[in-house]
Design goal:
heterodimer, A: about 325 residues, mainly alpha, ABC transporter involved in vitamin B12 uptake, BtuC, 12 helices, about 0% strand, globular, B: about 700 residues, alpha/beta, Rossmann fold, 3 domains, 8-stranded mixed β-sheet, 26 helices
Chain lengths: ~325, ~700
């Protein structure tokens, strides 16, 4: 594997620059409570982004994550209300996410329909189906053991930190050292070459979509248990956040290159910008423009370098 | 399709003719046939032109996207560019005092610059277009929000300009249709009749190969992104003319609809394949589906589900039929030899797909059949005069919003009580353009009463006047249109009344002095911005001890409101009260205060009782202000039916509204009564 990539380095530099400005302008940003809150708010994005990294590494994309996220969140609430114990609720949400991912994966891997088309279709269809069935109603009166997964507000972050470390390490290690992980890179680099080398590319593609769905389901549970009720219109626009984090983190949109560590950096950068601007007293009306500017700069810096000579590929 | 026949000759040479178009054409004909059977007034010339008027902005974006997708790229920033150029157009015209043509030039110039930025980043620097345009999407939309501060709406454009979006040529053809035709023809020539077009297909097949063949890849690619910026900004100007209003959220979400239309029309997202004729078919299929469902009074959520199914089915069938034949090119993503098992999977999918389509059709027909006999039965038994049940079409601002869901309950109750048929439909999110679209459909469908919760005052009034001309009774509720565009406005409470109640409550809780923060919905939400203005006014006039520390957006998202409140509590430690003026924001803010353990911070706001009950009882939310939403829906339907039966007519000063008793009418505004304040004492008496 490569050492740290160029993009990862430029994202790291952007984070460091932002942190320096913050340290000078608004040191309150680094208060323990604030960092803790930011961590909890961005963990769901990170978990979904890890799944998305796998999908993008194979050269595909999944824009249905927001809709899958909403369905899994509502499903986890309904399961908990039906008296299912919390660990099984989490598993159930992952299973539902995985199932929806399998639907995407089957269309992409076995029917060979472009992933952006498939997931565009499922994004719209799943969101409207959820709207139709819930009629916009929230899931309320959740059992007492739902919030904080039955633990307390102070224990839960530790639990989540453990979970995230395990996931991050497992995905990184698996991609680097397992045959299945290498197959993901191989498929993304060149489907034909990978197939000729004996990789079952369709199975790989199918599996990454299932994994992405299951990760999204987990993200939905991790997010939902921070609250005591579940809105049914949650996760709108999540796909853009997640994809932005992955590609800003250096994963090549055409597949074959990228690391979970880069994705982590992407989530950190994007998760920092919004609150950082608030802390620095920037008018909320200009926030979105500045966010867009920072993302563009981060990717453009990586692209502007002397003697560019590469065969361009278009997503 | 102007040059269908001639184009296919060219296509034979350069690209394998898209089989999608054939399949889609069949699907389209089937759709039209079905809707002609089940929907009212679907297959009429008027309906056709109305549908086309509503699709022009989307159509322009789809046309601009077609060559981009043919090169294997994508442009997600088109909708945001529409919003930016709409706002710049308004800014140039009103604030800089430029004449309309000059303002249009400013707007187009911005489109060119924006498109140029995409072009440089994609073509020159070789950054993947998905990332670039994702970034410029935020950038353009953000600049539009920054310019308007979310709040400014540019309105009052001269009528001659509005003709472009609302008028007719020769009495039938929508005025913007020729603009679309010109752009479409220009793109058709560029893509299918020129060397440049040929080059775009070549780039789509393989950029490296194209370069070695002597094609200036960078310039050709740059051109399509530049043009896309220009066309998007043209769409923005037409949007302003159509709705009479320039606002920063114009065109939100249009990019996905446009991409859907292009892909549905057979353009391959891998590049190298696709035609403008196909895109036109795709647009029609989407528009017909959406409008047909509405004319048949079926839930609009079905549109999303069916669009998804249509998209997958069309492309799956294309793949299936194409599998046997060798393609004209080798593509890494396509198997050259297809195994039997794959054919089996494909067949199964196609069968499953057609089963889904068939069963939804059966469902469609079924859902209408029982309605007919029951309508007759009701008509004979309950409705005294006028023949048939009155049809009341009622539109919320957004269908999924819990606030409007709770209004619907009362509306259903009144409809049942009065023997009326209630159609409840509207946009799924705040979307002024789609509100107009729904009303156009209702006019075509010839409902008896239209009642609208208006999202965009200036934009909707024209179409409401048109409805009145056709003899339809028009009511507004929740938010008003212009007074001459409706018979009555069912007014739940004035903006000033709400703002004053909230501000007085804040002052009471804070003991007259202290800092407070506001969490609003979207920064561009008109209602909330009006409330904020009155809150500021009330603070200045009656409560000089209060200081408004900050205003933060929540985008009507509970989780976002939660995070924003956490940040506010840190950045503004002096804040002692959070005032949330969007329904999901109140529980979000309350949860943040609770988790921070800040017993000293009060939360009040405008929200629904049910989602706040736990927080009110636990003492984290002190007061929720709202009117009785069920009663609002109930009163609206009552007023509609009475208007139709003649027991209520303009100029009356009282209405007898069923269980609500006698209510006052002032200047054709039916007043529901003062807002309710929900506290621990009374919140359990309400269930919505």
């Amino acid at each position: 594997m490569r050492s740290i990539g160029r993009r990862e380095a430029s994202v790291l530099a952007a984070i460091a620059a932002l942190a320096l400005v913050l340290a000078a302008a608004a040191p309150g940003f680094f208060a323990r409570d604030n960092l803790g809150d930011l961590f909890l708010a961005n963990v769901p994005v990170l978990i979904a982004a890890l799944g998305m990294t796998l999908v993008i590494l194979t050269g595909h994309i999944d824009i249905s994550v927001g809709s899958v996220f909403a369905i899994c969140a509502v499903a986890s609430g309904l399961l908990a209300k039906a008296g299912v114990p919390m660990p099984l609720v989490a598993l159930g949400a992952c299973a539902i996410g995985g199932l929806l991912g399998a639907l995407n994966g089957a269309f992409v891997a076995y029917l060979r329909i472009p992933s952006i088309v498939v997931t565009l279709a499922t994004m719209v269809a799943l969101r409207d189906a959820l709207r139709w069935t819930t009629g916009g109603a929230w899931v309320q009166e959740l059992p007492a053991g739902f919030q904080w997964l039955g633990t307390t507000q102070s224990v839960y972050p530790v639990l989540v930190a453990g979970l995230v470390i395990i996931l991050q390490v497992a995905v990184s290690w698996g991609l680097r050292n397992l045959a299945a992980g290498r197959a993901v890179y191989a498929t993304g680099s060149s489907v034909d070459a990978a197939r000729l080398a004996g990789v079952r590319t369709s199975l790989v593609t199918f599996s990454v979509f299932v994994a992405a769905g299951a990760f999204t389901g987990l993200a939905a549970v991790v997010n939902s248990v921070r609250f005591s009720q579940i809105p049914s219109n949650t996760g709108i626009g999540l796909e853009l956040n997640v994809i932005a984090a992955v590609v800003v983190g250096g994963t090549l949109i055409t597949g074959g290159r990228g690391t979970p560590a880069g994705t982590l950096l992407g989530v950190v950068l994007l998760g920092m910008i919004g609150p950082a601007l608030t802390f620095m007293g920037v008018s909320p009306y200009w926030e979105r423009a500045i966010q867009g500017g920072i993302i563009l700069t981060a990717v453009a810096v990586d692209a502007v370098r002397p003697h560019v000579m590469r065969v361009r590929s278009y997503a | 399709m102007p040059d269908e026949g001639r184009r296919s000759r060219l296509s034979r040479v350069s690209v394998p003719l898209s089989r999608n178009e054939g399949i889609l054409l069949i699907a389209l004909v089937a759709q039209i046939a079905l809707f002609s059977l089940i929907a009212k007034n679907f297959a009429t010339v008027g309906s056709f032109f109305e549908i086309s008027r509503l699709s022009v902005e989307l159509g322009l974006l789809a046309v601009a996207l077609t060559p981009i997708i043919i090169t294997g790229g994508i442009d997600l920033s088109v909708g945001a560019m529409m919003g930016l150029s709409a706002v710049l157009f308004g800014l140039a015209w009103r604030d800089w005092g430029l004449p309309i043509p000059a303002a249009a030039m400013v707007s187009l110039l911005a489109g060119g610059i924006g498109g140029g930025l995409n072009a440089v980043l994609v073509a020159r620097l070789g950054i993947p277009p998905l990332i670039v345009t994702l970034g410029t999407l935020s950038l353009f939309r953000g600049i539009a929000e920054g310019i308007t501060h979310g709040a400014t709406n540019y309105t009052g454009f001269p009528p001659a300009f509005l003709q472009l979006g609302q008028g007719y040529l020769w009495g039938v053809i929508p005025a913007q249709l020729p603009v679309f035709a010109v752009v479409f023809a220009a793109y058709a020539v560029l893509l299918h009749r020129s060397v440049i077009g040929r080059a775009l297909y070549a780039i789509g097949f393989g950029a490296a190969g194209a370069r070695f063949a002597g094609i200036p890849v960078v310039r050709r690619l740059g051109l399509v992104y530049l043009l896309s910026g220009l066309v998007s900004s043209l769409a923005g100007i037409i949007y302003v003319a159509h709705l009479g209003q320039a606002r920063s959220d114009a065109g939100g979400g249009y990019e996905l609809d446009a991409i859907t239309a292009v892909v549905l029309g057979g353009t391959s997202v891998f590049g190298g394949r696709g035609t403008l004729g196909g895109t036109l078919l795709g647009l029609f299929a989407l528009a017909v589906l959406r409008n047909g469902l509405r004319l048949a009074a079926l839930p609009s959520e079905l549109a999303g589900v069916l669009t998804g199914a249509l998209l997958l089915a069309t492309i799956a069938m294309d793949r299936w039929r194409g599998a046997g034949r060798p393609l004209a090119r080798v593509h890494v993503d396509e198997e050259s030899d297809v195994k039997n098992s794959q054919v089996a999977v494909l067949c199964a999918a196609v069968i499953a797909g057609s089963l889904i389509v068939a069963s939804t059709n059966v469902w469609l027909v079924r859902s209408i059949l029982p309605a007919i006999p029951s309508a007759d039965g009701q008509a004979a038994g309950r409705v005294p005069a006028g023949g048939g049940r009155p049809v009341i079409a009622m539109m919320p601002k957004a269908k999924g919003d819990p606030y409007f869901v709770s209004c619907r309950v009362g509306a259903e109750e009144a409809a049942k009580e009065l023997g009326a048929e209630l159609i409840w439909d509207g946009p799924t999110g705040l979307d002024a353009a789609r509100q107009n679209e729904v009303i156009e459909n209702w006019i075509t469908r010839q409902v008896d009463v239209i009642a609208v919760a208006v999202e965009n005052r200036a934009g909707i009034s024209t179409v409401l006047r048109k409805a009145r001309e056709r003899g339809i009774k028009v009511l507004t509720w929740d938010a008003d249109a212009e007074p001459d565009a409706r018979d009555f406005f069912v007014n739940q409470a004035t903006s000033e009344g709400i703002a004053n109640t909230l501000t007085d409550e804040a002052s009471r809780l804070l003991g007259g002095t202290g800092e407070f923060a506001i969490i609003t919905g979207a920064l561009s939400a008109a209602n909330q911005n009006e409330w904020i203005a009155f809150i500021k006014k009330r603070v200045a006039e009656a409560h000089p001890g209060l200081t408004l520390a900050t205003i933060r957006p929540s985008d009507d998202d509970r989780d976002r409101a939660f995070s924003e409140t956490q940040t506010i509590l840190r950045v503004n430690p002096g804040v002692r009260l959070v005032m949330a003026i969007s329904a999901p924001a109140v529980p979000g803010a309350a949860e943040a205060v609770r988790q921070a353990g800040r017993k000293d911070v009060h939360v009040i706001g405008l929200s629904l009782p049910n989602i706040n009950k736990p927080y009110v009882h636990a003492g984290w939310v002190q007061t929720v202000v709202l009117w009785n939403t069920g009663d609002l829906g109930y009163l609206t339907v009552h007023a509609g039916v009475q208007l139709l039966r003649g027991s209520l007519s303009p100029g009356d000063d009282e209405i007898e509204a069923g269980r609500l008793g006698r209510l006052q009418i002032r200047e054709n505004q039916i007043i529901l009564g003062p807002p309710l304040k929900f506290t621990t004492a009374n919140i359990d008496q309400f269930d919505f």
